Structure prediction request, 622 residues.
Amino acid sequence: MKELKNFYIKYKKLFFLLLLYSFGSFCCYFISWQFRFDFNPPSSYRNDLFYSSIWIIPIKLTMLFLANQFSGLLAYFSIRDLIKLFFATTSSSLVVMLASFLLINDLNYIPPRGVVLIDYILSFMGLSGLRLMIRLYREQLRDKEYKGSKFLNVAIVGAGYAGSNIAKEMLMTKKYELKPVVFFDDDPSKINSQLHGIPILGEPDLILTGDFEYKLDKIIIALPSSAVKRTREIVQIANRSNIECEIIPSIRDIASGKIQISKLRKIQIQDLLQRDVIDLNTEKIISHVKNQTVLVTGAGGSIGSELSRQLANFGAMSVILVDRSEGAVFNIQKELQSDGLVNTVPIVADILDELRMDFIFKSFRPKIVFHAAAHKHVYLMENQPSEAIKNNTIGTKKLIDLSIKNNVSHFLLISTDKAINPTSVMGATKRLAEIYLKSVAASNVSRIKLMAVRFGNVLGSSGSVIPIFEEQISNGGPVTVTHPDVTRYFMTIPEAVGLVLQAGAQSNGGEIFVLDMGEPVKIVDLAKQLIELHGYNLGKNIEIKFIGLKPGEKLFEELSHRAENLAPTDHPKILRLISDVDKSAALVLKKYNYFENSHNMEPLQIKVKLNELIPEYKPYIE
Prediction:
């Protein structure tokens, strides 16, 4: 009984449409006979109606099915559906007309050609009219539902493909209690027209005038991600009007048709920064990681967790999630499992524990390693250089050695632009890790492909400037900025990780890659945009306070140091560094026992030793 009920639930719509189209098609066919013979068919033709309908109606239904008219929603009949219906009725009539020429009419199975022509016109008009009537009826019911319920009035900015899909889902799905009442669009050709029965007005600036019928509760921005300047202006309009503002998902979701109300989100700072959409060679990435066992260190961090997500999406067979924070590794494994993307193995381990890590390598036999575990906070590491040395330098060396020992094919180190002419301990320790990686790659002791990828700040990572600013704003300020002229390169976490995977897929081994981060952003401008995004007015109800650069910090970041040159690669956003391997530093680093006891050393001693190994390092010394 339960199986029968499930069968009914699954196929009731199909049965209903089958009955509806069968009845409609037969009615049009019957009326066509009446029109052809002036409502008085000769007695010699009267049996032809019945006999011919036995094969003509199934042809009509088949063409409707092939035109996806059984899978569409009756209540949302669109121009696209009308075109499909036109092709279905045209093709079915052509088949019947062809049959009338080829088949012999001895059995009274072939209708007169005039009937076929009239039926073609009536079928298209009749079925279109039927669909339109159902749509109008459902819209009337919808309007009654809206009047009797507490729905939020929504304005959609952008009457294009994305805006149309969002409005359509709102009309179909009542559980979100959102009612699209108006579109705003800058395109003059769309003004005063309608989309899904919703009026399209002019520019979003009209929101400030209130010169329209509805009181708005929410604004949804459905513009291309390239329209950053316009998005900023709309956010300002929403803030001035005290209206909540949300935005559609990423451009990739739009392209894949995944626009959903549940995916709408609050405006984030990356939506207001002018960034080009990055195209990846996904085929190359897929061929690199598909069906591979991949180990990710620092898997619970901002970069490591996004690496794990994208590796799962690109078809990795298994992702070994290594992190010394049990909470972090639990959270990313839970997320990936709930999405059903990939086989994941959560492992709590410290990369400095060589025996433990060797056991992990031998147990799971990863072919690719992404090393994202690191101490990254400049100011904290400046006062605790021994920890930075152990984690960022010695930890990397141990992982490279273990990867060679256990026949890993690719090893990728996540590095930083702070390794360029470093002024901080954190940058210097990352630079030492790069030197060791380059020296091993140059020695040809293994077939492993070793590479590093440098990039700057990522938006929204833990402990980065944006979460700090947001916390300060929520507390009423002041927002603290180190210097009026300080600049940084920024990239979103998914963008950076996508390019890391791209670099890994195209590496020949031994390279250090640099990501093109776009134009540097003034931190004070970033602070102003965040203040505005949260609905505050700078100087009126919140202030910016300049506190000076912290030890180890730079006024601006660099792309390469003096002994390095940049060369293009197959991807326009990825550059390759050309430089000689500093073999003397590499040899010292191989004998890293000096740093094994760094916890007993004074910070100044460590900084002096780092400066000996990296002459371009300019340490901060109090």
